[in-house]
Amino acid sequence: MKILRLQSSNIQRVTAVDITPDPATRVIKIGGKNGNGKSSVLDTISIALGGQALCPAEPIHGGELEGMARLDLGELVVTRKFRRERLHTVDCGIHLAIEPKVCNCPPTFSPTTSSLVVANRDGAKYPTPQAILDRLKSDLTFDPLAFASATEKEQNAILRRIAGVDVSELDEQRRNDVALRTDLNRQVKAQEALFAAATFYKDAPAEEIGADEVNRTLAEAEELRKKADVAISDFLLVKGALKDLENERDSLAEHIVEAERKITESKRRLEAVHEKVNQQMPVVAELLHVNESAASLVPDVSAIQQKLKAIEETNKQVRANAARKAVAAKHATLAQAAIAKTAAIEAADLAKAKLLAEAEFPIPGLGLTEYGVAFNGLPFAQAGSANQLRTSVAIGMALNPALRVLRIDNGNMLDDDSLKLLEEMAEAQDYQLWLEWVTSDASQVAVFIEDGHVA
Fold it and tell me: 82 near 59, Cβ under 8 Å?
């Protein structure tokens, strides 16, 4: 389908335009001076087809109350109308309760409403008209050259849609795998740093040494030391008591002569004391023996403590080696996981490359790579202007197989070679290009717009 007739009334700068292009003309130049309505003529195409998103906030011209954009596409006739009402001015500060036609104040209007009718050639109307139009057009219907200025991401998405290549799942999986690999590599480096910083003791045993037996021996030695201390204390007490008895015996012997009257008593007491001395002597001897035995049994505590210290140092080395071994094991596990993710990413890249290699594009040499759109193996941005123009228009045509109409703004920016190229492509693909052209010479264009009318 192409535009067989374009009608526009009271749309933006247009007051009334009715254009029936020559069917043999592939590039239709809409020309005129700036501000005379040539862009509004082309806007009629986007307003009629594009829906609410492409309609301006206020499409109606000047102070008019109705506007209309109609396209005859042969199989379909599209009519979009706009309407608003003029509001009465109750008090403008000068006039009171008077008709708007009498008041000279700027008019005010109600919100603009729109209606859309899409009918077939027999006049039958479709119940969902915008849905019919949305299936006919693409975003590039109204500006195919926008592809050249689009971002690489946008260009990539457009080409994939044309070629029917959907690698979104592969891209999503790849992004996830790359994120996981990045995290794994970060953990690998962290483990490498821990492993490098870990101390290794080559002479340490493989397992920690148990210190229970040594601690038990130390406890037994401490108990024996306590018993020996008690024996020494008992010995010193008895030895002191014996010394006191000996002194008392000597004192009594010295006073025998002087204490004749106490001799009998003193002798009795002496005998008793002597008997006690005799009784204590074996006890003291036994206690001395016990003390000597206990002292001989007390081990060297400092040596035991030194042995414990050596065991703890050895076990510290064993634990350090075990921790170092654990770091190495985790490093190996993480490294293997990172390698697996790299393999998954490479597999996704191969699958994506295969899809892209098998895709068909509208221009020879055009293709998709992991990094964006390419032309003859180089980034599309590095392609010559002619190739970018040819590619952009070809993509616009590929996206609009049913509605074979493209609109190109700023046609004056194209040189003669570019214009010739557009005409050749439109002829070869049976397309209709509506081109905006700034000029004051009506002979240069197919339709010359002056003051909102076809001149």
Answer: yes
Query: In total, how many domains does the chain have?
Result: 2
Note the pTM of the prediction, 2 decimals.
Answer: 0.55
Q: From CA 238, how far away is CA 284, in angstroms rounded?
A: 7
* Tokens 């964006």 -> residue: 372
Amino acid letter at 86? Answer: R
DSSP state of 407: E
Length of the chain: 455
Backbone angles phi, psi at 441, to 5 degrees: -105, 110
224 and 322: one domain? yes
How far apart are the C-alpha atoms of 305 and 298, rounded to whole Å?
A: 14
326 in a domain, yes or no?
yes
Residue 8 — very low, low, confident or very high, per pLDDT cuts 50/70/90?
very high
- Domain annotation covers residue 158: no
Q: How does DSSP assign 349-374, residue by residue?
A: HHHHHHHHHH---SSTTEEEETTEEE
Segment 229-245 shows an average pLDDT of 82
What are the φ/ψ torsions at residue 359 (nearest 5 degrees)? -75, 150
Of 387, 383, 443, the closest CA to residue 417 belongs to: 387
Whether 428 and 293 map to the same domain: the answer is no
Query: What CATH number is attached to the domain comprising 441?
Result: 3.40.50.300
Q: Which residues pair with 78 in a beta bridge?
A: 71, 118
Highest mean pLDDT among 100-109, 158-167, 439-448: 439-448
Neighbours of 34 (CB within 10 A): 8
Tokens of 281: 């002597």
Check residue 68 and give its pLDDT.
93
User: Which range of residues forms the domain containing residue 40?
Assistant: 5-84+114-137+400-454
Q: How is residue 69 written in tokens?
A: 């954009």
Sole residue written with tokens 């946008």:
154
